[in-house]
Amino acid sequence: MLKTLFLLYFTLSLLFSYQIIVCLQQIYQSNIELSDKSTIFIPKVSFESPLKTLTVKSLMWCAQQCNLNILCRIFVYDEITFICKLYQNDLLSGNITFVLGSTSQVGRIRYQPQLYLNYNQTCDRCQGNRYLICQNAKCQCPPPTTYWNGQMCQNQLSYG
């Protein structure tokens, strides 16, 4: 009887934990596109540095870190050094380039207009939304580096 109760409790705990993980992943869900291996990202303006540089275990962890940072649009992971670089730039403000012998790979979060259907709606519509934040009681583009272009939040970094 005691063993049965323990197994039931353990099973329910696992189910509860799984639901929390799934919910958190759904809140910050992204479409990520990976480039070929041996690629690097080069910002058009050479002095623009990554938002963040960190050491992580895998490409998947690097993608997750980018997904958690609302300003991140591109990430670069080096499979030898385990260095993950997060960039605010997008493909309008930089290029993905093949470099023979490189041990890095570039990923980018795909931004599409349908991700912004709740723009200018009340804040309850963008709660937990990776792409919009609540500001002045409305769903808005994350300041200070994005703006509304009529369809979606666009990066306003200089394009060189």
UniProtKB/TrEMBL annotation:
Protein name: Apple domain-containing protein
Apple domain: residues covered: 48-93
Pfam families reported in the protein's UniProt record: PAN_1 (PF00024)
InterPro entries, sorted: Pan_app
Top-rank taxon, per record: Eukaryota
